[in-house]
Amino acid sequence: MEEATGMEVGVSLEAGKPAAAPWGMLYYGVPALLVLGALYRAAERCWLGPRRVAGALQGQGLRGTAYRFPAGDLPENARRSKEARAKPMPPCHDIVPRVAPLLQDIVKEYGNVCITWFGTTPRVVIAEPELVKDILSNKFGHFEKFTLKSLGKLIALGLASYEGEKWARHRRILNPAFHLEKLKRMLPAFSMCCSEMIDRWDSKLAGSDGPFELDIWQEFQNLTGDVISRTAFGSSFMEGRRIFQLQEEQADRIIKTIQYIYIPGYLYFPTENNRRMKENSREIEGLLRGIIEKRSRAVENGELSGDDLLGLMLKSNMDSGEPSNLRMSTEDVIEECKLFYFAGMETTSVLLTWTLVVLSMHPEWQHRAREEVLSAFGRDKPNFDGLSRLKTVTMILHEVLRLYPPAVTLSRRTFKEIQIGGITYPAGVGLELPIILIHHNTDVWGKDAHEFKPERFAEGISKATKTNQQAFFPFGWGPRICIGQNFAMLEAKMALCVILQNFEFQLSPSYTHAPYASVTLHPQHGAQIILTRL
Ligand code: HEM
User: Looking at ligand 1, which atom is closest to the CA of residue 171?
Assistant: First the structure.
């Protein structure tokens, strides 16, 4: 079979006339130009653009890793993390070499501000607390969040991923739901979930008083899942639970995907994992739509909206004074509800898990915390004012958040050209803010930075560092600081108080200390604790 030529096409188009040379040029020329254009765009995206940006930064003295086509440092990071995960670590709090081995080495070699490669994109690591604070403060709107929108849609968009006016509007609407006054009204829900957890633990005793072993990582995921289902959806608690179970599966599937995300269109590949993620996403959205539409009708009819996050959000949306086209739509509310789970459930269970592990390693602090709790509440249910006054418990939680920050790193991107620490960054540069490295920096926290010393927080957060500088960012900083931080601290205090009132705990011989960074800072092999009834 002969190859088609431009002439033949010319003949067919021109009804028998001999084809002229321009038709042949058109036939070959247009596709060739299209292919060249696509190749140029790909080269610009994967090679020329990144090299230009990196060159501009290196020209100002920034050092870092060399670009390796096409995935940058991602494969090396995956390899180093896998290697670190293969070995447990001694039961101490110097966890950075295990949790972020490559990041630690890069910063050691190239300094606190240095270049790494996230796939084809240069990313500057900024491990200087003052610079991190400036970036997160975002005074002049020079930074935006670095989110992968395609993945975001499968997990949750919502407040955490928006920018500009949309973010400001959603933050205004959501803020009232997290006011202390509203949280106070959620306390009975926190308390009920904690009591149910204690009842579950008691049922494991099966009539004996003897010690028993539990994986508290699982227990706290159940607890915080219950708390967020109850506080987000109130009476629709059981449907909420189903939604959050699906969300949990979704999170596991996303983690499997993330290492391939630099491959263009990877999410559209017909893999089993991709198919299940899309199915889950549809089911979650369908269930949420049902709950939201029912509740929206009730709010519009002036019925009680309820004290749960959904009701408060719908009420605040209706009272916002915004014209109806600027209020949150059902789609918007769906994304915010999905986000509550991701932002609020896992982070708090991580905090509680490491708190029990650390208090098992440091029984003297467990004892001090119990004394404080018993003198504040005896065996009664903890109340809002009492919880707000706890000093030792707060110091302990802060020290755990410092050593084991649930969100290990934060990221941003320059939106406009900007100077940071004497370096001019063009627009579009990714920034990685390694909270865990800053929290473990001996120059900032002193030689004992890797030790558990809650007393460093005795005079408050601002006096906790050696240098008196702000270097404690477990909830972020600036306008995008965690909207749920008071919610999380209240929930963690309530759970810890109830546990201290009822049980003494220590590490099980089967426990292996193995923190690792998944979406948040997980215990790789669970957290087996032995509990003894008091
Ligand atoms: C110990 C528990 C928690 C930790 C450590 C934590 C940590 C964080 C951090 C570091 C950020 C800032 C992210 C950034 O700047 O890129 C953030 C934002 C956020 N958190 Fe939390 N969080 C916790 C609990 C919660 C809870 C309980 C909720 C809700 C029920 C929540 C909802 C959010 C939301 C909606 C945002 C986005 C705020 C915005 O962009 O305006 N978080 N969280």
Answer: 41
